[in-house]
TrEMBL record:
Domain named FAD/NAD(P)-binding: residues: 5-326
Sequence similarity: Belongs to the NADH dehydrogenase family.
Name of the featured protein: NADH dehydrogenase
Keyword terms of this UniProt record: FAD, Flavoprotein, Oxidoreductase
UniProt GO molecular function: NAD(P)H dehydrogenase (quinone) activity
UniProt record, GO biological process: aerobic electron transport chain
Cofactor(s) of this protein: FAD
SUPFAM superfamilies for the chain: FAD/NAD(P)-binding domain
Signal peptide residues on this chain, from the entry's feature table: none
Native source organism of the sequence: Sporolactobacillus laevolacticus DSM 442
Length: 405
């Protein structure tokens, strides 16, 4: 009898952890496992704000997939998923197709521009290694051109960040570390550089503890960041952005050489376009993380939505939940193949830490508030813990952060 075919789409946090855990939970005779990803590397999205600012090289955020998964057990296919043909249990790829008995959709997130005029064309988003590398190179080019290009303007040295959620604030933290280095390298007076964050809410980090959010804001302001709160980006142009203050009719134009949009994320478009019923683009999964329409299809990470018991708002899309969902999925796949009942997913939030550059951070870990160096150290512990879970001590020694302390 042929073995069931398990196909995992996407090698982000959810897909990689699902693959690694499945090879541990199942024996070689239990199932054939295939992982599909558009690149031959896995990247840690949670480090991309550093690569985007240039405080770390983008190669630090990524690793070859074949060096992490057991290639004797897993068939890795480097290709782009185009659509899922549920009726025929097939995934259509750019260069072929794959049959499945069980499908795990872990295709992650896309930037959400909410239809704001000009953002797609004129703003960058921190989404992948490629987009992060482009941001770093663009900012560096603007600084390199300032003293050599006769048409260069002071506003070329202005960087606008759209949104002060966790991604925006973490990126600002890296920028305030990086800009002094760039000024030194390209002989630029630091007073000429402006970093402006535009946030629609009246405060930074809307979902965060207020005391910690204020700490982050004050730290970033002490390093020169200007916050425009209760202000919305209405349009991005080749010259900068047009913003509007709440309750005002007027549009203000801010000229800038770089606009980075961190105003929100949405699920990968493929599940909705493949005909899955979605809640704002995400599959609202059953207790054991399956599509309610098809119990051969699982969804984990940012393409899935899970509500806490009796709550109106779902859990936010994070790497933390994607990893825990992957662990639950691997256990349940074993149960299913043995004909046993599955276990419902129970999320165990461990807290949130946001970096503010190399040596500063804020966070709540197991209900304890942290700021400054202890928080920065905790962030590195969290980053390294993921590497440990994924690839053991070897991966931590190769890619980990704690040795930099
Ligand atoms: P992803 O990690 O997005 O992985 C999806 C994978 O699918 C990628 O490898 C992608 O290349 C691949 N893929 C996509 N489309 C296709 C296709 N068509 N064909 C083939 N492959 C495809 N969360 C935290 O918990 N802690 C943090 O500190 C944190 N920091 C963050 C910092 C930033 C700057 C950002 C933007 C997000 C951060 N998050 C953090 C959120 C976290 O990154 C996401 O929730 C997490 O990446 C979701 O994991 P995932 O496995 O669902 O998808
Ligand atoms: P987000 O949706 O959390 O934040 C977006 C911010 O942009 C909000 O504050 C919103 O008010 C603002 N905004 C939206 N439209 C705007 C407009 N037109 N003008 C001005 N401001 C506007 O998005 P994110 O920060 O990218 O986070 C995405 C997910 O990743 C979240 O679930 C977050 O928890 C997670 N994340 C976690 C960490 C961490 O744990 N350290 C770091 C980064 C991201």
């Amino acid at each position: 009898m042929s073995k069931p075919k398990i196909v995992i789409l996407g090698a982000g946090y959810g897909g990689m952890m699902a693959t690694v855990r499945l090879t541990k939970e199942l024996s070689i005779d239990d199932a054939d496992i295939t992982l599909v990803n558009k690149h031959n590397y896995h990247y840690q999205t949670t480090w991309l704000h550093e690569a985007a600012a240039g405080t770390i090289h983008h190669d630090r955020t990524r690793m070859l997939i074949k060096n992490v998964i057991n290639t004797k057990r897993v068939n890795f296919v480097q290709d782009s998923v185009k659509t899922i043909d549920r009726e025929n249990h097939k995934v259509l790829l750019k260069n072929g197709e794959i049959d499945y008995d069980y499908l795990v959709i872990a295709l992650g997130f896309e930037s959400n521009t909410f239809g704001i005029k000009g953002l797609e064309e004129n703003a960058f988003a921190i989404r992948s290694v490629n987009t992060a590398r482009k941001i770093r190179e663009h900012i560096e080019y603007k600084f390199a051109s300032y003293n050599s290009d006769p048409d260069a303007k002071d506003s070329d040295l202005t960087i606008i960040v759209g949104g002060a959620g966790l991604s925006g604030v973490e990126f600002l933290g890296e920028l305030v570390d990086r800009i002094p280095e760039l000024c030194k390298e390209y002989d630029i007076d630091p007073k000429k550089v402006r970093i402006v964050d535009v946030e629609g809410m009246p405060f930074v980090l809307p979902p965060f503890d207020r005391e910690l959010a204020n700490y982050a804001q004050e730290y970033l302001e002490s390093k020169g960041v200007e916050f425009k709160l209760s202000t919305f980006i209405k349009e991005a142009t080749s010259e900068g952005v047009k913003v509007q203050k709440k309750d005002s009719e007027e549009l203000e134009e801010i000229q800038a050489g770089t606009v980075v949009w961190t105003g929100g994320v949405k699920a990968n478009h493929i599940p909705a376009e493949s005909g899955f019923e979605t809640n704002r683009g995400k599959i609202q999964v059953t207790g054991d993380l399956r599509s309610p329409e098809d119990d051969h299809v699982f969804a984990i990470g940012d393409v899935a939505v899970v509500f806490p018991p009796n709550a109106e708002r779902p859990y936010p899309p994070t790497a933390q939940i994607a990893i825990q969902e992957a662990e639950n999925l691997a256990k349940n796949m074993k149960h299913i193949l043995k004909g046993e009942a599955t276990e419902d997913f129970v999320y165990k939030p461990k807290g949130t830490v946001a970096s503010l550059g190399e040596k500063e951070a804020i966070g709540v870990v197991f209900d304890h508030k942290l700021t400054g160096k202890p928080a920065a150290a905790m962030k590195k512990v969290i980053d390294d813990r993921y590497l440990l879970m994924l690839g053991g001590v070897g991966l931590v020694l190769k890619k980990g952060k704690l040795k930099l302390l």
